[in-house]
Amino acid sequence: MPLNDKQKISILIHFLGWALFGIVIFVLSPLSAGVERPIEYWIKQALSFSMLIGIFYINYFYLIPRVLFKNKIPLFLLINLFAGILYVVLLIFYDDYTHLPELMHRAFRPEVTYVPRPRNYYWDISQLLIFFMSVGISTSIASVQKWQSDEKLRLEQSQQQINSELNYLKAQINPHFFFNTLNNIYSLTNIDVEKAKTALLKLSRMMRYVLYETEKTHTLLTKELDFIRDFIELMRLRLSSKVHLEINIPEKIEEAPIAPMLLLPFIENCFKHGVSSQLESSIFISLEFNSKELILTTKNKIHRHHDNSPESKASGIGLQNTKRRLDLLYDKKHELQIGENSLENTYQVTLKINL
User: Fold this and answer.
1) What does CATH list as the number for 161-354?
2) Left (φ > 0), alpha (ψ -120 to 50) or beta: where does 99 sit?
3) pTM of this prediction?
4) Within the chain, how many helices (H) and strands (E) appear?
5) Which of 4, 109, 210, 354 is deepest in the core (most CB within 10 A)?
């Protein structure tokens, strides 16, 4: 299976990193002393360097994913501690087998007779620290890559959830709103044909928006507001003279990207729960956009319909989904206030979004 560009770059980075580390620690540092060292010393350097590379990738590919990431932290530490001790013991055994201390003495002090001395464990400790540095680097790299992978997966799942919730909102508005609006337009054809044509044009424009604009992650604010205006105008067809509408949506507005159908559930909620066929009703909808901040305010009279219809339940679920979409799309860029005023018997929503 051929490697992709990302894999090739990763291999190249690993190769260059080890080459730089090996040259600095195991080649340049010894050569800086200006003394010709025996071949046994360079064999030891190569052996030590090979073992460090080995433990790096054993940790990277096996111990970290199968032990550390399985929450077996004590076992992971014990394995690496044992491996570090074994690493130092092998180097000590090599020194004793090749008589490297004597050979190094002759290289540095050829005029002085070699006298065996107790081993200086300072160098062994430094080797152990280099070993643990290799383990620490492999653990850090693997941990960062796992975090990036988990974050990517989380973002993909969040995006899938956003898409599924948006599809739910599209399904929610299609069967109820469009069916009722078509009935109203049909009745209107017997009264005012021109008005019915205008309503039909608005409905087709809304359907086009639902079909095409909601396939995108963002749409233009002007298109979203055109959709809302059409929705309000078509809702007027169902209202009686007992309903007072106050709509403040600017005709011209600064352009900005916005998630499609984000504002509709709050406006739709006003008409579903703020209109009574017998009592006086009022609906207030205002929208402002200044310095990239969009402010939507809705207010309606509270009428207790005790409605258990699927449409009424869908409205509640729609608001919950919209809150979820706001949290996912505009996490720290929005402020939503929803509450009832018992004195005025009104329900009010104030939404602020930084676009």
Assistant:
1) 3.30.565.10
2) left
3) 0.55
4) 12, 7
5) 210
How is the chain split into domains, by residue range?
5-152, 161-354
Provide the 10 A C-beta neighbour count for residue 270. 23
Predicted local confidence at residue 126, as pLDDT: 86
Tally the C-alpha atoms within 13 A of residue 313's C-alpha that lie toward its C-beta: 3
Distance CA(42)–CA(104), nearest Å, equals: 11
Q: Residue 232: in which H helix or E strand, if any?
A: helix 221-236
Cβ atoms of residues 267 and 231 within 8 Å: yes
What gap in Å lies between CA 181 and CA 287, rounded to an integer?
Answer: 24
Residue 40, token pair as written in the block: 């046994």
Determine the residue type at 205.
Answer: R
CB 81 within 8 A of CB 25: no
Distance CA 243, CA 282 (A): 6
- Structure confidence at residue 209 (pLDDT): 86
pLDDT tens digits, 165-198: 666 665 655 555 677 678 778 877 877 788 888 8
Q: What is the pLDDT of residues 215-227, one digit of tens each?
A: 787 889 999 999 9
pLDDT in tens, 24-80: 766 666 666 666 778 888 888 888 888 988 898 898 888 998 898 888 889 999 999
Report the C-alpha gap between 146 and 70 in whole angstroms: 13
CB-CB contact of 198 with 254 (8 Å):
no
Q: What are phi and psi of 55, to 5 degrees?
A: -65, -30
Give me the amino acid identity at 308. Answer: N
CA gap 183, 179 in Å, rounded: 6
The structure tokens listed for 208 are: 């086009």
| Mean pLDDT computed over every residue of the chain | 81
What is the distance in angstroms between the CA of the first residue and the CA of the last residue of the chain?
Answer: 45
How many residues are present in the chain? Answer: 355
Helix, strand or coil for residue 307?
Answer: coil
265 vs 4 pLDDT, higher one? 265
7 token code pair: 């894999």
CA atoms of 166 and 18, how far apart (whole Å): 49
Residue ranges of E strands in 217-330:
219-220, 243-248, 257-258, 281-290, 293-301
For residue 165, the tally of other CB atoms under 10 A from its CB is 18
